[in-house]
């Protein structure tokens, strides 16, 4: 156990293999558990977050506490959420007693469209207290589990939590979608949603060998900057998310066909053609060729004024 004032041992692959054998633990594929064992890359992630004692950090997936320990050295407060009970216990032991680190045993997601109150409530409460003590910034810094990376990013960006930046590792495929341009194969609903709320930087591509166990695909470190001016252009962020989901459910159709086939078919072909003509948008184009500004105009024209409830 890490004693107060002592730094936890840096977790190399050799260290983790021995630790797992000792504890009888195995990484769970269904939870996307791959641990970043390149210590230089862990330091790089922390550096890109530019942490100070004025920052509170959310980490999703404490794992064995390796990244958490580095965050704790630089940030004024850390809240780390871990869904696996075994790794939650291991992370607690790794981190020891620092009062500015809080571990929460919970899934960060209630479902793919909602954050879990069991995780969000302590985060919101902790951020409120931290702000009252002079804290300035809320940041997400995380080696995101592959299984939940997309819904975690989407839901956190859509939430009212005032993140200053998000520095995360994700699958390379997800990173390509986050930074895609209109008209490219990776451009889609996730691209439009995230780029309508934030600016995205692809910082570094990661090969499978820097993780243990090795994943089957490459990964990437990305930095996301939420932008209030962009968010202000969206009348209803949840409605915009739902509209994009429904629009891209018919990706192979042209824009006219996708809009005609929206759930409950609220518009017939003649109404779709009339609205598109008023907007000056070619109905034979495909949604993935249009920039985020056009998607916003389409949402205002074609989506319901009432946000669907789960």
Measured on Cα atoms, how large is the radius of gyration?
21 Å
What CATH first level of the largest domain would be assigned?
Answer: Alpha Beta
Please tally the helical runs, counting DSSP H or I stretches of 4 or more residues: 13
CATH superfamily of the largest domain: Vaccinia Virus protein VP39
Order of helices and strands: HEHEHEHEEEHEHEHHEEEHHHHH
Q: What would you call the quaternary organization?
A: single chain
Report the uncertain regions.
1-5, 305-310
Across the major sheet, the strand order is: 4-3-2-7-8-11-9
- How would a crystallographer describe the biggest sheet? 7 strands, mixed
Helix content: 40-55%
The percent range for strand residues is: 15-25%
Count of DSSP strands: 11
Please tell me the CATH architecture of the largest domain by its name.
3-Layer(aba) Sandwich
Structural class: alpha/beta
Quickly count the domains.
2
Mean residue pLDDT: 93
Overall geometry comes to elongated
Please summarize what this structure is:
The chain has 13 helices and 11 strands.
Question: Would you write up a description of this structure?
Answer:
- The chain has 310 residues and is an alpha/beta fold.
- The strands form 3 sheets. The chain has a 7-stranded mixed beta sheet with strand order 4-3-2-7-8-11-9, sandwiched between helices.
- The longest helix is centred in the middle third of the chain and has 16 residues, at 117-132.
- β7 (137-143), α6 (149-158) and β8 form a beta-alpha-beta unit.
- The radius of gyration is 21 Å and the shape is elongated.
- It is 41% helix and 19% strand.
